[in-house]
């Protein structure tokens, strides 16, 4: 995987836990940039099938994870699939 979301992929791919919960801030620290506003406002950015080819979703799909956002808590749980 290449591109701006590679650090997230590498982090998730190297974790042994079946469930990894990260805050938006932790994800931004890994990436080195701020998530787009849509990531904080719409669950679809994390989960919608039409975004599967998008770079952000490739980060967890290639790490064999699904994303379950909690927008109110500003966290995402990445579950092993």
Descriptive notes:
- 40% of the residues lie in helices and 21% in strands.
- The chain contains five helices and three strands; from the N terminus they run H-E-H-H-H-H-E-E.
- It has a three-stranded antiparallel β-sheet with strand order 1-3-2.
Mean pLDDT: 95
Helix proportion: 25-40%
> How many structural domains are formed by the residues?
1
Tally of DSSP β-strands? 3
Q: Tell me the major beta sheet.
A: 3 strands, antiparallel
Please write out the topology:
Blueprint: H1 6-13, E1 19-23, H2 24-31, H3 37-41, H4 44-47, H5 55-61, E2 65-70, E3 75-80
Antiparallel strand pairs: 1-3, 2-3
Give short descriptive properties of this protein.
single chain; alpha+beta; three-stranded antiparallel β-sheet
Concise summary:
It contains 5 helices and 3 strands; from the N terminus they run H-E-H-H-H-H-E-E. It has 81 residues and is an alpha+beta fold. The chain has one domain.
């Amino acid at each position: 995987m290449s591109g701006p979301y590679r650090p997230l992929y590498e982090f998730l791919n190297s974790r042994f836990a079946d469930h990894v919960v990260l805050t938006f801030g932790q994800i931004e620290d890994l990436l080195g940039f701020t998530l787009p506003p849509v990531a904080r406002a719409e669950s679809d950015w994390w989960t919608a099938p039409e975004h599967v080819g998008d770079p952000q979703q490739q980060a967890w799909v290639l790490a064999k994870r699904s994303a379950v956002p909690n927008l109110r808590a500003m966290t995402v749980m990445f579950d092993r699939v």
